[in-house]
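note to self — DONT lose this again. spent like an hour looking for the file last time. sequence + predicted structure for the chain T wanted, 154 res
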Amino acid sequence: MSKRETYESKTEELLLPIAEKYGVEIYDVEYVKEGSDWYLRAYIDKPEGVNIVDCENVSRALSDVLDAEDYIPDAYILEVSSPGLGRTLKKDRHLEKSLGMNVEIKMYKPIDGSKEFAGILKAYDVDTITIEENGVNRVLSRKETALVRLAFDF
């Protein structure tokens, strides 16, 4: 397991009782470097959506636990937020909750001249993601998929 994966996994483990206490679910945890800064991001959600108070409560509690555990030697910025409307669907649990919804998919390489596809998420498995585009199913390779996110119209 990489350093990043270890930090994300440990943070998610520590975040679980905090999320339960405040009535939110963990959507994702990521540890990323942007420019010269490291960020530890926790995305939380609940059916009616999270608000600023949810984020503040979870952030304060998580910050205290992270200070006590002190397993990340790098300086980092902690952020706790909602995954947002156009949330990225990284994990199987994200895809499962999004079946039947409109998604946008970006591929690493063009397929039939395009790297971007949109449609209704119909199915997924270890190797593929199936969307319905204009009444036709399109099966895309997961390993060749750069990004899957919920599509939203205003």
